[in-house]
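Reopening closed ticket. The problem is back. First fold of the pair:
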Amino acid sequence: MIRNPIRWPNGARCACAITFDVDADSLIHIARPNDGHRRLYPISMGRYGPNAGVPRILETYWRLGLKQSFFMPGWVMEQYPETVEAIMAGGHEIGHHGYLHEDPAEQSADEQTYWFERALDVHRKMTGNTPRGYRAPVYNVTPEVLSLAVKHGLTYESSMMADDLPYRIDTANGSLFELPVHWGSDDWPPFAHFDEIGYKMSVMSPRRGLEASFDEFEAQYEAGGLWIGIWHPFLTGRLARWRVVEQWLEDVLAHRDVWFAPLEEIAAYVAKLEAEGSWQPHREPAAPYGHPVLQEKE
C-alpha cells in the first residue's frame, strides 16, 4: 500500500510521533494585536496548555518511557521558561514554530527572515542549541522559510502533506527532510472553538474527536508507514481527552510493534538509511511553481 517502504528500527512495523504545538496564548495576540491583551477568556484558554496540559502530558511520557516532540513559538518560550525547562528535563525535543505564531505566507521575504531568525535566537539562548526541525504556524510554510531552515542548519520540516513517508525537499540552499502531516491526525478540527480567530467548531466528545487520529494510526500501522499526531496541549491536554490518549497509548505500547521517537530521531534515522544506500526518499522541489499558475493574458 506504500511505495518505497522503510525498514524501521528493531523490526517495528510503524514509526510514530506525537507532536504537540505549544501555542499557548500566542494565538489571540497575533490575531488581535490591538486588544488581545485584554481578552481574558482566550488568553486563559491558551494558558491552560503550559499551566495544566504540558505537565500532565510530560507525566504520562515519563511513566511510559516516551521521548517526543514539542513545537513552541519563540514568544511562548520567553513567556513560559518553566515549560521549556520541563520539556528539556524530560529529554524531549523542542522545534521551531515561528515567533508569535505568525503566518509566513502573509509576509514579505524580509519579514519571514526577521521572524524566523528572531525565534531561532530564542531557541539558542534558552536551550543552548539550534532546533533540528521546523513546523510553520497554520502549516503555511513557504519556499523562503524552507531555504532559511536549511541555511541555519535545521535537518527537517513538518508542515506539508505530499507523501505517507519522509521525503526530501530541495531548496535554493540545499535539502532537508519533510516529515509529513495531515489534518486527519490534527486535533484542531474536532476540538477548536475559538471564535476570536475565526474558528467556531462543534466540539466533539473526547473519544469521537480522537477517532480520526487513531484511525490514521491504524492505516499507517497496517502499511508500515509513519504516523504523526499534531495536537495542542490546550486542546488534547485537557483531562477527559488526555485520559483517552493515555488508554490508547498503553494499549498500543502493550500490543503493537511500534517505534515512538521524536521527529529529530526519525529524521536522523531516514538520513542514515539514505546515506547507506539502503533506502532512497521521494524528492519534491521547495517551489514546484515559480509563478502564479493562472496569469492574465496580455
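Second fold of the pair, where the issue appears:
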Amino acid sequence: MKVSFIGLGIMGSRMAANLLKKNKTLTVFNRSADPIQELVKQGAVAADSYRDAVKDAEVVFTMLPLPEVVETVAFSKVGFVPEMKKNAVWVDCSTVNPSFSWKSFLRAKKRGIRFMDAPVSGTKPNAENADLTFIVGAAKNDLETVKPLLEYMGEKIMHVGEPGKGTAFKMLVNSLLAQSMLALSENILLGEQLGFPRDFLLDTLPKMSVTAPFTQAKAEMIRKDDFEVQFPLEWMHKDLHLAALTAYEQGQPLPLANLAKELYAAAKQDGLGRKDFSAIYQFMKN
C-alpha cells in the first residue's frame, strides 16, 4: 500500500518512523527539512511539496498543529487534496475542532476522497513506542482499509462514530487532561502550605483512586523540575480554545474548561508555551 505522511513534528515524525518499520513505501513531506532527512535515512521517500507527496498515494496521513494549518496544507492553492487519487483515504490525525473535521469530510467527499478523523491520545513517548490510542470518526469500511496502518503506530483504536466524532471525543479527553493537571498542581501547592513534604504529596496524590493515572508521570516531572516537552503547553491552550469554540457552537456552558483555558493562556504568556503542559504547576507555583 502506498502511503504518505504530512506533518513531521514531535508526534508525526515518530508515527511516520513506526510506519516505516512495517511499510517501505512511505512518502513524507514537512514544512521544515530536518525531519524529512531523518526519515529518508530510515527509508522514506522525500517529496518536494504537499501535492507531490500525495501523488499515487492510497492513504494520506496528516498530523498538523492547527485547523488553519490543515486548511492551508489541504485546501489552499498549494494544497494536496486536488492531487489525491479518487477513492484514496485521507486520515487527519490533527487535533482540530469537530465542525472543521466535518467540513473537511464534505469537501473531500466532493472530490471522491474518503476522509476520516483519527486524532491520537498520547504524548511523545507513546508515539515513539507505537502505543498511541487512535480516536476515529469514520465510515466503518474506511476504517477497515487503514486499520493495519493504525496498528503499526498504536495499540488501541476507538471507533466513536461518523467523521467529526473522533475530534469531538478527543476534545473531551484533552479538556479532562488539562483540568486534571491543574487540579493536581493546585492540591500539591495547597498540601505544601499545610505542612506536607512535597515528595510525600508527589508520591501519594497521583496514586489515589480519585486521581487521573497519567499524573504519576507528570509528578516525576514536577519532582525533577524538568518540563521537557512531551505535549506542549501552547497546544493544550489551543485545544481548550477549540473546546470553547465548539461549546459556543452548541450553546453549551463550559465554565471550568474556560477557566482552565485562561490559566494556560497566562502560563503561555509567561513564557511556558514550549514546555510540557505539566509546567502549569510551575506557573501556579510562581
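Update: turned out to be a display glitch only; the data is intact. The chain has a mean pLDDT of 97. The radius of gyration is 20 Å. Please close again.
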